[in-house]
Every structure is written in structure tokens, then in C-alpha cells.
Amino acid sequence: MAIIYHWCPAGAWDAAVDEYDAPSLAEDGFIHFSHKHQVERTATDLHRGQTDLVLLCVDDTTVEVVDEDCYEMGEEFPHVYSPIPVASVVAIFPFPPEPDGAFRLPDGLLD
Predict the structure, then answer these.
(1) DSSP conformational letter for 83
(2) What CATH number corresponds to the domain at position 73?
(3) For each of the chain's 111 residues, which pLDDT tens digit applies?
(4) Quick one: DSSP state of residue 71?
(5) Is there a domain that residue 58 lies in?
(6) CA atoms of 95 and 90, how far apart (whole Å)
(7) Were both Cys, which of 43, 55, 67, 109 would link to 76 (CB 3.0–4.6 Å)?
């Protein structure tokens, strides 16, 4: 098992019953994820200072993951082309920004 990571507003996660359906699934056709080494940079670039996020740790053996570079950035990111079963989330961490708005990996984060 490997872990892939997805952050979202806490309220969106709290609303999930059996599956979590990120808005990007309807907009882009997939749910965006990151590998551990991509989390801090990507979250900071896209959501600097956003205070209502949680970081989901998803067991990649329970979902079909496609690693791809959809935006020609020279880097592949994991994507899932379906809703995420709530049971696939093995841990959830509060994901507040630092005082400068940047994100740091939470202590105790799963690999």
C-alpha cells in the first residue's frame, strides 16, 4: 500500500457519506491527488492561506490511480477518475497554513 494525498475543505469532507466527490471530478474529469513530496508545494501554490482544509490520506490500492502530467508541467501527479470511497481514506489531518500562508506536512503523516 502507498498513500496518495488530497486536500479539501473540511465541510466538503464532512458532507461525504459513502463517497467523496470533489468538484474537480465534474470540472476536470478526475480528482486531483499528490504524492507526499508534492503536497507542500502544490497546496501552497494553489491554496496559499486557505484556512478550512483537511488533508486526506488515501490507500492507493483501493482506488484506480493514474499517474499523469495532464498540464504539461513535466511532473506526473496521481489522478482518480471516480468518486473516492470513504473507506479508502485511512487518515485525515487538519491542514492549516503557516503564518506566511504556506502549507507544511502535518506531524505523523502516513507514507
Answers:
(1) P
(2) 3.20.170.20
(3) 899 999 999 999 999 999 999 999 999 999 999 999 999 999 999 999 999 999 999 999 999 999 999 778 789 999 999 999 999 999 999 999 999 999 999 998 867
(4) T
(5) yes
(6) 16
(7) 67
